[in-house]
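Need the bound structure for PBG, inputs here:
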Amino acid sequence: MSSFPDIRLRRMRRTGALRALVRETRLDLDDFVLPLFVGIETRRNEELPPLGRFSVDDLAGEVEEVVRLGVSAVLLFGVPDEKDDEGSGAYDTDGIVQQALRELRPRFPELVLMTDVCLCEYTAHGHCGRVEDGEVQNDATLDVLGRTAVSHAEAGADIVAPSDMMDGRVAALREALDEAGFEGTPIVSYAAKYASAFYGPFREAADSTPAFGDRRGYQMDPANVREALRECEQDVAEGADVLMIKPAMLNLDVIRAVREDFDLPVAAYNVSGEYAMLKAAAAKGWLDERQAAVESLTAIKRAGADFIVSYWAKELAGWL
Ligand code: PBG
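Answer from helper R.:
Posting the output first, comments after.
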């Protein structure tokens, strides 16, 4: 009785209702975070809509719409007009993200407001840390990151998410937040963030392409998985509340490995290039976008992600 023809795995696949009974992984809108870009002026992106940017005023309108559709969490990125070497716009109390947070917080008390804590959108050189002698400095960057996180919490952020990949940043953020009285603000650490070619559309949207060199001196080598576990170990020791893997679709094995080794919630960032390649193929008529997106997002959850940052979150609200 242990093999064909007694066993027929197709029996439970015969109808949609039978398949639904035994489905192991489901997408739930509550597990999605929508990235949103806020800038001085609204700039629509016809081909990749979530990669456009909104002025603070227009952002509130967009958020109202996505909340109505059922999206429960957003991740804010700031695109300032002025940049300097230090990235001071990142921690300015009147910075673009801080303004957006103050606008959104009272209007959407239930919405999870997560912020990206990084300097690359704010520095003139486009790197994620302070630069001295052509090198991205680690320790000298930590203080600025801590100040940035505190300024976000003060303006109303529920969660801060550092994406710079400096060593020791989670501890630095935790200390700065606690000192400022935000011991209740969680840190979602981009623990394993790879130096990826798939951030292209994001950098275009956020205007954060490095002016020289690349990010391989701080982001991880895509060839490594054991190193990702060491990154996670460090971040757990420093007080991270959630571990994030990025990019998601390319690193399902890393998501699975982190899921198995750690009890913390695991997040995955379905990045702009992963989104754009399916969009482009769908625009050509080569793929069905909805099916391809749902299949990809299901794979990310099946690999072990508890929640997913995805540019599809708004469309998904209509699909689910
Ligand atoms: C900022 C940051 C990047 C992304 C998220 N935060 C770009 C980068 O590291 O160059 C990429 C997200 C995406 O591609 O969707 N450091």
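Comments: The longest strand covers residues 32-39. The CA atoms of residues 23 and 306 lie 17 Å apart.
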